[in-house]
Amino acid sequence: MINVTDTQWTTDFLNRVLSASESRWLETKRVSGKMVGKALEAICAFANTEGGWLVLGVEDESKAKGTDRLFGIAENQEAVDELMRKLLTHHLPIISGIQALRLPCRLRDGSVGALVAITVPA
User: Fold this and answer.
1) Predicted pLDDT at 91
2) Is the pLDDT of residue 92 over 90?
3) Cβ atoms 84, 36 nearer than 8 A
4) Chain centroid to CA 16: how far?
């Protein structure tokens, strides 16, 4: 996982994510045990189409708005770790070129936390 230290890039990226609707190239997920299977499905779909971004630690836009969507990955770090392990073994053939970025940010409650943005090539 790559730790992103460019705060301007992170701010710009999060603003785009929070202002966009989920689409063929963007999906957001809060981290839970159920998230792992759905995240693997989304990654497979991105790889089989035009590529995309899966952003973990972000609530669905129908349940919260703006920065109130930022829950972070500390909510269930074990699920994030499980997803990272399964990215290496679950898809056959293996999807090459996937990158996971750890994005530090201010969460909905004002605390410092992090999100994970996974970019999937077509």
Assistant:
1) 76
2) no
3) no
4) 13
Where does 31-95 show beta strands of DSSP type E? Answer: 52-56
Per DSSP, 110 falls in state S
d(CA 20, CA 82) in angstroms, rounded, equals: 27
3-state secondary structure of 93: coil
**To which H or E segment does residue 10 belong?**
helix 7-19
Note whether 118 and 17 are within 8 A (CB): no
Cβ–Cβ under 8 Å, residues 116 and 57: yes
Q: Which residue has the tokens 């971004």?
A: 53
Q: How confident is the model at residue 96 (pLDDT cuts 50, 70, 90)?
A: confident
